[in-house]
Amino acid sequence: MQENITQIRVYRYRLYPTKPQEVAMFETLRLTRTLYNAGLEQRIAAYRKQGKTVTAYDQQKELTALKAECPEFNAVYSHVLQDALDRLDKAYKGFFARVKRGDKAGFPRFKPRQRWNSFRFKEVWDRKKGQWLSPGKPVDEGRRINIPKIGAVKCKFHRPLEGTPKTLQIVHDCGEWYAVYTCEVPVNPLPVTGSAVGVDVGTRYFAITSDGEFVHNPRHLGNALKKLRVQQRTVSRRKRGGNRRRKAALQVAKTHRKIRRSRQDFHHKTARKLVNEHDLIAHEGLKVSNMVQSNLSRSISDVGWSAFFDILRGKAESAGRVVVRVPPQYTSQRCHACGHTCRENRNNEVFKCVSCGHEDHADWNAAKNILARALPSGVNGNEVSYAVA
């Protein structure tokens, strides 16, 4: 049964385009952004003047006429143009979903150059023939990939692609180009360990497990704040619209990219260790978006709990493990030994039960409570993120 289970995995490779190829890629970004903004303007005008809702299908049918009227759009692959309108449709659907939930709506906005850095090919694999289509096809013995309307671009395949490729996205990130493939790969479960663990996350320690392991918080953003302050002051001194200000802003973006990559690498390694060692991993179902409104917002954003839990679930899915989200209420105030729950039990990092006298590290005690809630006797009301029979 497990042989039929698949998951979507992302592979990211560095591209090294020539100068003419890079000009063509920037032009593709410009044209797709122009199409997105024109599509948004069309939707707004149609609703204001006629009360009519324009769909992505309606707009995509007009692409042939658009190419006839504006020949420069012939330089962009048709699927790439369609995807720009699909992204607009997705933004609209997200807006209406947030309105329905009562969240902050956030109506779709026009995209400036700084906020449009990718274009996507919706199909790169012919399922019937079991072979590559033109977009994304490795050529020149795997040293280049074919990008329609642009050419064969040099690509560094630092690891092989696995499974069946589905889409290809070309991303521009702080002066560097990347090819991002999404592939459908089979799930390969790891051997059963018979172990279960509860994980409590924090800002002083990134994670504390019910086994007593304390994972220190590397504080990637905190360690780079001094450098960022200097760079951001340099940006503020530069004249708006000038080339020197643009270069200074690029340095800030590169520093943030390094922080993001370091944090992501730490998340992957921590999640991999948990998945390799345990069959069941329990953590609190935290509403991080609400927690970042507190005075600890910078520290909470720095540790990146939401991103870590997403990575953990993805690795658990590929390994056939189980991840359980448990209700977070009172996990830090409940005594793991006797079950007595009150605020007085916890004093900063020290947990001392006022009922039975049990003493423990407060976060370790919370991790044990999280595991207890995830086990079969306490699983009611919990959300199982992934499970393989």
UniProtKB/TrEMBL annotation:
Residue intervals of the Cas12f1-like TNB domain: 305-370
GO annotation, biological process: DNA recombination; transposition
Protein name: Transposase
Transposase putative helix-turn-helix domain span: 9-52
Alphabetized UniProt keyword annotations: DNA recombination, DNA-binding, Metal-binding, Transposition, Zinc
Family of the protein in this entry: In the N-terminal section; belongs to the transposase 2 family.
Residue span(s) of domain Probable transposase IS891/IS1136/IS1341: 183-294
InterPro entries associated with the record: Cas12f1-like_TNB (IPR010095), RNA-guided_DNA_endo/Transpos (IPR051399), Transposase (IPR001959), Transposase_put_HTH (IPR021027)
GO molecular-function term, one example from the UniProt record: DNA binding
